[in-house]
Automatic annotation (TrEMBL), chain A:
Keywords in alphabetical order: Amino-acid transport, Cell membrane, Membrane, Transmembrane, Transmembrane helix, Transport
Domain of life: Archaea
Biological source species: Haloarcula mannanilytica
Source lineage: Archaea, Methanobacteriati, Methanobacteriota, Stenosarchaea group, Halobacteria
Protein name: ABC transmembrane type-1 domain-containing protein
Family stated for the protein in its record: Belongs to the binding-protein-dependent transport system permease family.
TrEMBL record, chain B:
CC per GO annotation: plasma membrane
Membrane topology: Peripheral membrane protein
Gene3D superfamilies: P-loop containing nucleotide triphosphate hydrolases
Keyword annotations: Amino-acid transport, ATP-binding, Cell membrane, Membrane, Nucleotide-binding, Transport
Protein family: Belongs to the ABC transporter superfamily.
Organism encoding this protein: Haloarcula mannanilytica
Protein name from the UniProt record: Glutamine ABC transporter ATP-binding protein
């Protein structure tokens, strides 16, 4: 079992996630958000703007503007007691103002998701052997893995992005690769960011997985070895299937962090959600609307990730294993 | 006369300063059931673990069916296929069902296909009376059932020798019986067993020999009648009378 602290964290996460699925409004919002995103992407990337011209919003602004001005005059006529109506008017104004930018932001969301998913998935592939090396390795592999983890956890992610982007030939090498930057294959900066997130996330994920592996009782590997499995096979067939289940709550945390940290990629010109928001805002000076909108999108992504992880955790749950024991 | 199935010859083992086994030697033939008794910390678990090389010995030799298994070039995984082990705290694979526990070795060690392994797995669960619990996870089983799955898991590998390390001492008293019964059946079938246990009923009825281990040395080794009725060493008698008064094994 984990330390008391980690158990508490796991509980907190689980409680929050459990509450999420109990809220129909949350589920509905998430469903609407994803439907819109998928239709938008399909139209812009795959159908070449067949449903609606690229960059043009699905939603007309006029009704929202009309509603806003009608409510505005109503609020004015009500005098001092009209302020709640004024707020509603403000909300419609916000919607009317946001609608033209939705298509552009949807493209940014695509890059954000791609960055996060690739970073977490590739990071996982590195994190598993890294954590196994930390727990079961000899002195040398152990300290190499420790060095890696400390290096990437101990330095700022932004610095890692800058070093990879500016100080290594990575950018030039990737630029020369075929198809990079054409169609919906993002340009080289995106791939540099993926590499940085992969390396960085691997370090964090390996910490979660390492402590999860440590919470698998020693007798499990002993029993595996006693039936004639080699150490590697015992780790693979007995320790990892248990440890990875213990790691899910921490791993979900890392996913949520990475969604938000992926905004750092904007510093090396990756056209993800934050970068798009910032670019449009500095053109239109509509900072408030745009960053509120971006914030809501990040929130929707984070909630979606929590829901997904809650689902995964339920799917792989085994009676008596970890906090999911039923 | 044929080779003994298991032979320990002058085995020494220490942890740092602490001498745990000091020249342990004994032999057992195929079909024998030897029960090891002795105070806590006398080296019983260590001795068992040396046999399947979960622990490496310092000096001496251990022979299984005539082969020296403590040679540096012995393939330990090959050795462990031939020596099953049953643990005090069961150590069932927590993420696998009862059947999964029994078939893991068949599939990943013996390389059996899934269907054959399942079939064999069911047979071994049947042998310990648990085929109806095949799909239960360890957390859903009682202690006695867990240990019976543990026995089935060891049996499935078709070992030449089964090692038991206090198989009933983690169990509630009312669950001891079902495990002892399974062990008696195995003994009756002629399976060679080396059992660390203070379950005196089992020792009296099923043991070929009793080995009394104290401070890493075999103090006395003989048939149950001799050890229980007429112990040769003073310490054996003391230990046995202490066992009787406390009514519990360590
Ligand atoms: N892995 C180990 N490291 C250090 N000391 C050990 C280890 N295993 C056992 N010992 C020591 O060896 C002695 C014998 O232990 P053990 O074989 O478990 O005795 P028993 O099973 O008879 O109670 C004990 O004093 C114990 O502390
Ligand atoms: Mg012991």
């Amino acid at each position: 079992m984990g330390t008391p602290e980690s158990t508490t964290t796991e509980r907190t996460i689980r409680t929050r996630a459990a509450e999420l699925t109990d809220q129909p409004l949350t589920l509905l919002t998430v469903a609407v958000f994803w439907t819109w995103l998928v239709v938008r992407w399909t139209n812009d990337f795959l159908l070449d703007g067949a449903l609606i011209e690229r960059g043009t919003s699905f939603f007309p602004t006029a009704p929202f503007e009309a509603a806003a001005s009608a409510l505005g005059s109503l609020a004015a006529s009500l005098g001092p007691v009209g302020f709640p109506v004024g707020w509603v008017a403000g909300f419609f104004e916000f919607l009317a103002a946001s609608i033209p930018y939705l298509p552009e932001l949807a493209i940014g969301v695509w890059a954000t998701i791609l960055l996060t998913v690739l970073g977490i998935a590739l990071g996982f592939v590195i994190a598993v052997p890294l954590s196994v090396a930390r727990v079961y390795g000899g002195t040398i592999t152990r300290s190499l893995a420790l060095g890696y983890t400390e290096l990437f956890r101990g330095t700022p992610l932004l610095a890692q992005l800058f070093v990879l982007y500016f100080a290594t030939p990575l950018t030039t090498v990737i630029r020369e690769l075929p198809t990079v930057g054409t169609g919906f294959i993002p340009a080289q900066a995106f791939w540099v960011a993926v590499i940085a997130f992969t390396l960085n996330s691997a370090a964090y994920q390996s910490e979660y997985i390492r402590s999860a592996l440590n919470s698998v009782p020693e007798g499990q590997l002993t029993a595996a070895r006693a039936i004639g499995l080699s150490k590697v096979d015992g780790i693979r067939h007995v320790v990892l299937p248990q440890g990875l289940r213990y790691a899910i709550p921490g791993w979900s945390n890392e996913l949520v962090y990475l969604i938000k940290y992926s905004s750092l990629a904007s510093f090396i010109t990756v056209r993800e959600l934050f970068e798009r928001t910032d670019a449009i805002a500095s053109e239109t000076y509509r900072y408030t609307e745009l960053f509120v909108l971006a914030g809501l999108f990040y929130l929707a992504l984070v909630i979606s990730a929590s829901l997904l992880m809650e689902y995964v955790e339920e799917q792989v749950a085994i009676p008596g294993l970890g906090t999911t024991g039923r | 006369m044929s080779d003994p199935l298991l032979a320990l010859d002058d085995v020494y083992k220490s942890y740092g300063e602490e001498q745990v086994l000091s020249g342990v030697s004994f032999e057992m033939d195929a079909g024998d059931v030897d029960v090891v008794i002795g105070p806590s910390g006398s080296g019983k678990s260590t001795m068992l673990r040396c046999v399947n090389r979960l622990t490496e010995i310092d000096s001496g030799d251990i022979y299984l069916d005539g082969d020296c298994v403590t040679d540096a070039d012995t393939d330990v995984n090959e050795l462990r296929k031939q020596v099953g082990m049953v643990f005090q705290d069961f150590n069932l694979f927590a993420h696998l069902t009862a059947l999964g526990n029994v078939t893991l070795g068949l599939r990943k060690v013996r390389g059996m296909d899934k269907a054959t392994a399942r079939e064999r797995g069911y047979e071994h669960l049947e042998q310990v009376g648990l085929s109806d619990q095949a799909d239960s996870y360890p957390a859903e089983l009682s202690g006695g059932q867990k240990q019976r799955v543990g026995i089935a898991r060891a049996l499935a590998m078709d070992p030449k020798l089964l090692l038991f390390d206090e198989p009933t001492s983690a169990l509630d008293p009312e669950l001891v019986g079902e495990v002892v019964e399974v062990m008696r059946d195995l003994a009756a079938e002629g399976i060679t067993m080396l059992v660390v246990s203070h379950e005196m009923g089992f020792a009296r009825s099923a043991a070929s020999d009793i080995i009394f281990l104290d401070e890493g040395r075999i103090v006395e080794h003989g048939p149950p009648e001799q050890l229980f009725e007429n112990p040769q060493a003073a310490r054996t008698g003391e230990f046995l009378s202490r066992l009787e008064t406390t009514h519990e094994g360590e």
